[in-house]
Amino acid sequence: MINLKNIQNQKWLGINISILGAGKSGISAAKLCKFIGAKPFISESKNDVKLKEILSNFNYEIGGHSNKVLNCKLLIISPGIDSKVPIVQQCIKNKIPIVSEIEFASWFSDTPIIAVTGSNGKSTTVNLIKKMFDSAKIKSQLGGNFGTPFSDLILFEKRNPNLIKINILEVSSFQLEHVYHFSPNYSIILNISPDHLDRHETLENYLNQKLKILKNLREPGWLIFNSGDILLSNQLHDYERKIPFSQSYSDQALLSLNKTKIYYNDSNDVLIYFKDMGLRGTHNIENILAASTLAIKYGLKHRYIKQAIREIKPLNHRMEFVQEIDGVSYYNDSKATNIESTIAAVNSFKKNIILILGGRGKGKASYYKAFKFKKEKIKYIISYGEAGKMIQDDLQNKFKVEFFKEFQNAIKRTFEISNSGDTVLLSPSCSSFDQFKNYEERGIFFKKIINSKNKQC
Questions:
Q1: Is residue 16 a contact partner of residue 75, using CB atoms and an 8 Å limit?
Q2: Are the beta carbons of 401 and 395 closer than 8 angstroms?
């Protein structure tokens, strides 16, 4: 078996490595395996004939995980696969080392890493950091849980030596579940709220996975964290190498804010006025504070940080304005797959919101306790999908709620009940997996329905 304690001296030529999952990260890991001379075997539970062409360059199986997986010295597990599945348990019994794709990829690069995790805002924050480095003309790569798998970034590095100066990674709790040596130079934790409890079972387990981002923080590395998040702040009370950010004043923070701007604590010089920011919403202020704190600590000049904040635009499916039809504004926030994300989205608007909730739930959640909005803020709620009836039952005593099983019918209902001045907001609070492959597909379908409605007008 592979000795994880002495990974730097490992010889890879001819070593059998099994990879669970034929998604982006699994295929990326397999390509890196081949590059280093190892022999990858990809095992995918889905029986999708389209995969045969995608996997044609590898040794693979589809339609289930057989005992062929056990013929390996190392198992790389894709983020979407739970460690409780039988084949993983058998690997554990056989004492086969198990690592995540980001752990595996990290073994083959010494390039500095900025790693960002949290329940909400990860993708926006890493994209803003990337834009800051681009503004400063520093060659960086962006990937991980967002966009390009880490193994692909490492392959690019290997084929283009001395080009990339830093890797910027979004990392999820699933990816952090099996890390050992993964060593960021800067780690950012944006926030912690109940998420993925269908997998992690408890908030404590979920938090413990997130905190693994600190496990091997490189000296003289720094943790940048949201001190306004009480749960997070309490957990990090005794951690020394930390820099806080928060919408509330902290004399330990590098930045503060008032009603109109963000400014530097040490000089009171203005970083940026809110009116000049490319992102809207109070939740994005925290993302900007986190990214800017990182950039300042890294040593980027003020003008590059400010330029990036001004020019950054919302990502697809994250508070994305679709269009206005007959005075009704439509927003696609399909990426909002937990309640906290939805609350942040709703708080970005003043009133007359028609809110679309639903999909597949992530464990027990009380919308009634979480939704403390005044009734005039949310005009109507349309729920749909597997979690839709539960959402209706939970909220119908507080708001007007209507349930539809199918996503398409839920969207079309908003056309009938909306009036000029309303905002239709898709911010589902749930995963998309009951009716879609992912949140992107759900968001694209939402935009397609809205755009077809506009053509009919």
A1: no
A2: yes
Contacts of 352 (CB under 8 A, 6+ apart): 376, 379, 421, 422, 423
Element (H, E) at 41: strand 39-44
DSSP per-residue codes, 391-437: HHHHHTTTS-EEEESSHHHHHHHHHHH--TT-EEEEEEESBSTTTSS
CA 283 – CA 297 distance, rounded (Å): 22
**Cβ neighbour number for residue 395 with a 10 Å cutoff:** 21
pTM above 0.85, yes or no: no
Q: pLDDT at residue 402 above 80?
A: yes
pLDDT of 202 reads 78
Q: CA-CA distance, 427 to 334, in Å (whole number)?
A: 6
- Residue 256 confidence (pLDDT): 96
**Distance from C-alpha of 457 to C-alpha of 435, rounded to nearest angstrom:** 28
Q: Do residues 246 and 253 lie in contact, with contact meaning Cβ atoms separated by under 8 Å?
A: yes
How far is it, in rounded angstroms, from Cα 336 to Cα 345?
A: 8
Helix (H) or strand (E) holding 176: helix 173-176
CB 190 within 8 A of CB 170: no
The reply to whether omega before 220 is within 30° of 0 (cis) is yes
**pLDDT tens digits, residue range 102-147?**
999 999 999 999 999 998 889 999 999 999 999 999 999 999 998 8
Task: Tell which wins on pLDDT, 203 or 23.
Answer: 23
Indicate the residue type of 372. K
